[in-house]
Amino acid sequence: MAIRLASRIAAVKPSPTIAAENKARELRARGVDVISLTVGEPDFDTPKAVKQAGIKAIEEGFTKYMPTAGTPELRQAVCTKLARENGVEYRPEQVIVSVGAKHTIYNLLMALVDPGDEVIIPAPYWVSYPDMVLLAGGRPVIVETSAERGFKMTAEELSAAITPRTKLLILNTPSNPTGAAYTKAELEALAKVVVEKDILVCSDEIYEKLVYDGFVQTAFASLSPEVYARTITVNGLSKAYAMTGWRLGYGAGPVEVIRAMEVVQSQSTSNPSSVTIKAATFALANPAEELPMMVAEFDRRRRFLVDALGSLPGVTCAMPTGAFYAFPNVSRLLGRKTREGRTIATSYDLADYLLDAARVGTVAGAAFGAEGYLRLSYATAMPKIEEAVARMRTALSALE
Ligand code: PMP
Ligand code: GLU
Q: How far is CA 324 from the centre of its chain?
């Protein structure tokens, strides 16, 4: 029987970050010694006390269905965190917890976006934003930002992209993949346009703790009451608490939006795992002692990797301010040929070549809307990063 899939499936692709990681994983399963700098996943273990909270939940039989949007304790713990660390006051009914921040954003788009609605996404962007907008039936409007301005969208660029169909802006700072982080003044300039043009903002702040060189992070919703009324703050535990596999993200914003997201969630996944809910409640109430150590180690790797990439033939790399990705410009390598005579025409070809010839997994910049770049995660142990760079040097030197 010829199975006809829903047309929405033809409009989207699998997540390229996850696809790149899966490719590296498959090679490793076949015994190939691959160093994967693909997926954005801390190599650190979940803090011990958080794990203990999860184990205790299982032992105490905390293993049943939960309220869809999360337990009152966890929603309150999110409010307390946002007030304490970000200077934004929310009530528990303004908060929903979901199966990862990815799920939170998906629920938000399903709750807000009608067919034909436009969602503004500055490029380079995290791979999932445009495809999630498409799944919701909306139209992603990509705003190119320039490397010279550190890949940060200006108020003029935002203003020019807004039309009567604009529903939402997705802002991600610090950014995956570039590590660009907006200062308070830069956010204020964008906020002025947001309020004037009366659009909503999804502020994805999942990398807020991973900032370097003394950068001060500002929560978008904290800028003014007018901005607060238009913002849905998104965050999660994957990055700052090394809890990727536990799957816990959250959103906070206007009550009617959160209620609509809860409807979507109640008809799809219901609550996140009860065990994760307990562990997350503990984690948010007890800021991780391990965090400063993790940030210091990411910083050390950032400096090493960015310098080392800049010394590779045909590669330049700017220093990111946050997150755990290097985003080198490799445009001078495009058009070159491998020894076997294959032309490296795109960043996808280059990522494939590096996987084949150097056994190093990277993600093509084109997947983030930035052809001519590669993304390398430095959430990997230092010796592996050193070895990866050495292998890349050999492979890139062999290009003709
Ligand atoms: N936002 C950004 C910018 C990300 O890089 C990611 C990937 N980790 C997420 C959201 C989703 O994270 P998670 O679903 O693991 O909470
Ligand atoms: N967000 C991480 C990344 O960009 C995890 C994988 C994903 O969900 O995209 O690599």
A: 10
Q: How far is the CA of 39 from the centre of ligand 2 (A)?
A: 6
Nearest 5 degrees, angle CA 227-CA 207-CA 87? 40
Please give the C-alpha separations between residue 315 and each of 31, 147, 217, 327, 338, in angstroms, as whole numbers. 30, 14, 29, 10, 16
The pocket around ligand 2, CB under 6 angstroms, is made up of 15, 17-18, 39-40, 102, 126-128, 176
Instruction: Check residue 129 and give its pLDDT.
Output: 98
The pLDDT of 68-81, averaged and rounded, is 98
- Give the up-direction half-sphere exposure of residue 201: CA atoms within 13 A in the CB hemisphere: 30
Residues with Cβ within 8 Å of residue 134, at least 6 apart in sequence: 8, 11, 12, 140
Write the burial class of residue 337 (CB in 10 Å: 0-12 exposed, 13-18 middle, 19+ buried). Answer: exposed
Residues 6+ apart with CB under 8 A from 364: 16, 20, 346, 347, 348, 350, 351, 374, 375
pLDDT digits (tens, 9 = 90+) for 333-357: 999 999 999 999 999 999 999 999 9
Cα distance between residue 235 and residue 112, in whole Å: 18
Indicate whether residue 41 lines ligand 1 (CB < 6 A): no
Q: Would the pTM count as exceeding 0.90?
A: yes
* Burial (CB count within 10 angstroms: exposed 0-12, middle 13-18, buried 19+), residue 254: middle
Mean pLDDT taken over the chain:
97
With 90 as the cut, is the pLDDT of residue 290 above it? no
What is the full DSSP assignment across 154-181? -HHHHHHH--TTEEEEEEESSPTTT---
Peptide linkage before 177 cis (omega within 30 of 0): yes
* CA of 39, nearest ligand number: 2
The single residue listed with the structure tokens 């596999």 is 245
Count of other CB atoms within 10 angstroms of residue 48: 10
d(CA 25, CA 314): 28
